[in-house]
Design brief:
By secondary structure, the chain is an alpha/beta fold. The chain is built from 6 helices and 11 strands.
Length: 226
């Protein structure tokens, strides 16, 4: 069961400012939807507040020490609880277990019992680089973010913010990174530093700037090296 981070960041690892994004990129939003729909999401309190309401067709889990969260979100006090909740959500979706019946041996979490069985069943593909544009015929427009198909393997998505990314980076299996080609000095939240030596790039797709996208950007997918 894969744990993945999905994030959009500037050239200096900028994520946002004042709990908001620094850019408006419709195709990146489509990429985010494509790779999170139907999957459990784990986020921090500030990300929850920036969303305002839970994302549809997803389990929205908030990792926080707060006593309550917004309606439609689920609260987790620590990473073990958040990951167990996410895995239970996946199992319910697969109808492996009843929604209200989850049997876990005393002292053994779902994280411990499940992650070892199917964590690394994905085989990386060859890096494929493409240049795309929001311009052009309908065929190109409809295909531009479908070159990299959503994972069919069970997958938990970490969606932010900065501190959550930092904590999750050490045990994450995959990174879905949108690199926005711009500098954003107003940013007050940043993605953690990470080393390419620990990751293998399995996909790379370039998107040029156009009338709907002020900045050019790149979709990149990385899998942790074994």
């Amino acid at each position: 069961m894969r744990v993945s981070i999905i994030a959009a960041l500037g050239v200096n690892l900028e994520l946002g400012a004042n709990n908001a994004l620094l850019w408006h990129l419709p195709d990146d939003f489509s990429w985010f939807i494509q790779h999170t729909k139907g999957k459990p999401l784990i986020m921090g309190r500030k990300t929850m507040e920036s969303l305002g309401k839970p994302l549809k067709n997803r389990t929205n889990i908030v990792l926080t020490s707060a006593l309550s969260v917004l309606p439609g979100f689920e609260i987790a006090k620590n990473w073990d609880a958040a990951l167990d909740m996410a895995k239970a959500s996946i199992l319910r979706l697969q109808k492996i277990i009843p929604e209200d019946s989850l049997e876990v041996k005393p002292g053994v979490s779902i994280l411990t019992t499940l992650i070892n069985s199917d964590k690394n069943n994905y085989k990386a593909t060859t890096v494929e680089t493409k240049t795309i544009s929001g311009q052009g015929n309908d065929g190109m427009a409809n295909s531009r973010i479908h070159q990299y198909a959503p994972s069919i393997d069970p997958e938990i998505m970490i969606i932010g913010g900065g501190e959550i990314y930092k904590q999750a980076l050490e045990f994450t299996d995959r990174l879905y990174i949108t690199e926005v080609n711009g500098n954003f000095s107003q940013a007050d939240t940043h993605f953690p530093l990470w080393s390419l030596q620990e990751w293998k790039e399995t996909y790379h797709q370039h998107h040029i700037a156009d009338e709907k996208h002020q900045f050019s950007f790149d979709f990149r997918v990385f899998d942790r090296r074994e």
